[in-house]
Amino acid sequence: MQHGVADGVNITDVQKLALYETILANKQVVRTSWDEFLDRAKRAHQIFLNVSEEYLKRSPSVPRAVTARGVADGATSSSNS
Known about the structure:
There is one protein chain. The protein is mainly α. The chain is built from 2 helices and 2 strands. A two-stranded parallel sheet has the order 1-2. Strand 1 (2-5), helix 1 and strand 2 form a beta-alpha-beta unit. The longest helix has 25 residues, at 34-58.
């Protein structure tokens, strides 16, 4: 199965449109809007950050200067200066 990200479809060729509709009907392609894609990406990243932070809290061997968000505790990165 392939995933495609698009807000709309504008296929004007009748044969290509028929083929596209067949592919969709056979669930060979799943179409997702950009808004849905962005929402899923944000949720996945937030879950990753939450799990990473929980791991750091429970792991005494990880230096405290490292955080799941990539910035040292109590310090600023050079890109934030």
